[in-house]
Amino acid sequence: MTESTQVAQELPERSFGWWDMWVSPEDDPRDDSTLVGERAVLTGYLRNYRLTLELKCSGLDAQQLARRSVPPSNLSLLGLVRHLTEVERYWFRKAMAGEDVPELYVREGEDDWDIDGAVADPAVVEEAWQNWRAEVKYGEEFVAAATDLGMNSPDGENNLRDVLVHLIEEYCRHMGHADLIRERIDGRVGQ
């Protein structure tokens, strides 16, 4: 048996159709139809991509969430949750609020512990989602309290508008990864 034949036999059957969307259109929590004005557009798109992360991970157990995409990649959906937690934490707490907070997923000699430490343990999964939700909440509250999207970070190197655009870009890039990882797990293709 060739390697490509063996890999093909291990893959889930690809499935796509409106009948097999992550959620039915009427239940989809993402909405950009009423976004008017710069703040609403930026925060609305970021909210929708955060919701997309949750949708792409929904219904999976710890083993599936920790499953790596394709060797030699170390990416997994759980690793993406942990990575995006660090992204949210860095940009809102450290860069914009000037807080001196430690990284959540740091290990001596492990540069990618947010990704590499994503193991198939229900407690690790629960902690990752709790941390992610806490950082998202902090970011939402920080933005809501800001009177001007042009506000600068304490060091003057960043402004809130740029940070929001960067987070949208970061989520967009990783939702592409999440699409492929999810398809590798169970054949589902995202909307």
From TrEMBL:
Pfam families, per the entry: MST
Gene3D superfamilies (UniProt xref): dinb family like domain
SUPFAM superfamilies documented for this protein: DinB/YfiT-like putative metalloenzymes (SSF109854)
Name of the protein in question: Putative damage-inducible protein DinB
Organism: Microlunatus parietis
